[in-house]
Amino acid sequence: MWNLLDEPWLSVRRRPDAEQAGNHLSARPSDISVRELLLGADLYAELLVDFTTQRPAIYRQLLLPLVVDALGFPEDATAWGHMFTVGRFSEAQRERLTAYLDAHHHLFDLFSPDDPFAQVAGLTTSGDATKSAAVLVATAALGNNVPLFSSRTEGDRLALTPAQAARWLLHVHCWDTGAIKTGASGDPDAKAGKTTGNPVGPLGQLGVVMPLGTTVYETLLLNIPYGRQPLRNDLPQWRRRAKEGDVTTTLSCATPAWTTRAARGLLDVWTWQARRVRLVPETTSEGELRVSRAVVAAGDRLLLDVDHEPHTAWHVDSARTRARRSAQRGERKGEGRERKGEESHFRPVRHRAGRAAWRGLDALLAVGKSTVEEHAKEETDGFHTSILLSQLVEVSDYLPVGYGAQVELTGTRYGTKLGNIEDVYHDEIPLPLAALRPDSDVRGALLGVVEQAEELARAVNALAAELRRAAGAPPPPLGAWQYPGETLLHALDPLVRRLLVGLREVGEEDFDRTEEGLLAWEERAYREAWRIADDLLSASNAASAFTGREVKGRDGQNRIARESSAEAFFRANLYRILFRRTARRQAREDTTDDSLTTEQ
């Protein structure tokens, strides 16, 4: 009726060819089918989406498992590197992909009456009720989920095209809200027409980290781990469609029943069916197919596993945190409140809204062995980067110098009861591959730049607080959004991104060019910091700020807070933080002094 493999529902931007360099039409978006996209993945620069969180959903729920189930994982780093160097699927691989798509063609019908894709045929509720298609759409108002400044209300009819419905269907399996869900008929765990305690979609529990290449083919390869052995029960959801039998044995997602379990492997976790869904298609008076109603009920609940989840970085608990959490688990076990899957010492790193991605480079660059002892200390929690970024260290020799890899970060913040989406996080930063090597100069340089930016923000905040004390006003409360340090970090953002792009071109051993880039960064950061500081000093026009005011210091002793001392402290902080600039300035002064002495 409407097959995902054949219908043009994926929007892409074609990669400009050398002979079409002057043809701007080549960069215009176009809609193609899954078959066209996979067989010609090297021809397209990127997959375009309506909403940023749709991209990881489409790759994970469909494109990546299709490629891996048809071709298998690359055997090792050499095999992966060979595929990347070739830059496209070989003729043999294209034939295998075509054969796979033909053999499983019937499983990708979006509106099949017997087995619709990623849905449960005939799914109904106890009252045989359906909801507006807004239940699928994260940006549409429905119930508690009312986006700010939305142009729609819950009463407005929302009619999705089949292409839109397909994209949001994959999205709901990854990012849906949690808490209470409609109880489906035939769900043994539904009570009083509903299920409670539903977690949010699997990606909603993560801070998604997804490497992007310069073509769709490269993006596919960058998101496929190598060296993995096929596991017996690791199948994509379209091959787990048994209608009979115990769901804990069949692992079927074609019935209203669901389970709480760990993933059987990467194909399983990629195509995780977090909800039981049925789209209700209808034909308009113009003869067009639309989806304005749907059923969304509880689905499988995933127990996260660091070995199977490739698209997130991880917090690693310190020894102190592990001991505290073990004690808490013991108390809950004694009270009969033990939670499944809470024994892990790894927790996904969630992205913080309003915080640029480069400020979390310490987690993204934490490459190494995946053990608690390796990444966490006795008192301090550690980080471990994603599986996919870790493997780039081993295959970096196959990537061209200055390769234009990007890292896309997406995440969602839910309300306190998980029933609504409060904010969506999205950012994309250039990735210098040399920075992934633990002993590289580039890695140390980038982490140093992040720390410098944070210290500069703290220095500006300290200046503002001291000026307020000198004027007799209390400092703003901790974490207040109006902190001038946040303004400075916003001003430093394009400078850091420019540095990231520049360091992609620098060789791993080119220390001099790295230092030149860092010195240029410090010069620009110095100017931006003083621009913010000048605004603060200019605004401090109270007479008391100039003469000073007696305040109590941290040590409990009284001291005088005045504008001149605040500026002096800030200047000293800049000299300390931006040490390369300070050293060059000192060297120039020494050279000037020597030349004057020689002339005399």
List its traits.
600 residues, alpha+beta, three-stranded antiparallel β-sheet, 18 strands, 38% helix, globular
Describe this structure as you would to a colleague.
The protein is of the alpha+beta class and 600 residues long. The chain is 38% helix and 15% strand. The protein has 18 helices and 18 strands. The strands form seven sheets. The chain has a three-stranded antiparallel sheet. Strands 4-10-9 form a three-stranded antiparallel sheet, covered by helices on one side. A three-stranded antiparallel sheet has the order 7-15-16. Strand 15 and strand 16 (421-430) form a beta hairpin. The longest helix has 30 residues, at 441-470. The chain is globular and about 80 Å long. The protein starts with 9 loop residues before the first strand and ends with a helix. Mean pLDDT is 85; it is low at 21-25 and 369-376.
Terminal residue distance? 94 Å
Strand arrangement across the biggest beta sheet: 2-1-3
- Total number of β-strand segments? 18
pLDDT averaged residue by residue = 85
Overall geometry: globular
Radius of gyration: 28 Å
* Helix and strand composition category: alpha+beta
- How much helix is in the residues? 25-40%
Low-confidence stretches: 21-25, 369-376
The biggest sheet amounts to:
3 strands, antiparallel
* Percent in strands: 15-25%
The number of helical runs is: 18
Secondary structure elements and their pairing?
Blueprint: E1 10-14, E2 29-32, H1 34-39, E3 44-48, H2 54-71, H3 77-86, H4 91-103, E4 131-132, H5 162-175, E5 179-182, E6 194-198, E7 208-212, H6 216-222, H7 247-250, E8 260-262, H8 266-270, E9 275-283, E10 289-298, E11 301-303, E12 314-316, H9 319-334, E13 346-348, H10 361-364, H11 372-375, E14 382-384, H12 387-395, E15 406-414, E16 421-430, H13 441-470, H14 484-504, H15 511-539, H16 543-547, E17 549-552, E18 558-561, H17 563-577, H18 579-599
Parallel strand pairs: 8-11
Antiparallel strand pairs: 1-2, 1-3, 4-10, 5-6, 7-15, 9-10, 12-13, 12-14, 15-16, 17-18
Helix pairs in contact: 2-4, 2-5, 13-14, 13-15, 13-17, 14-15
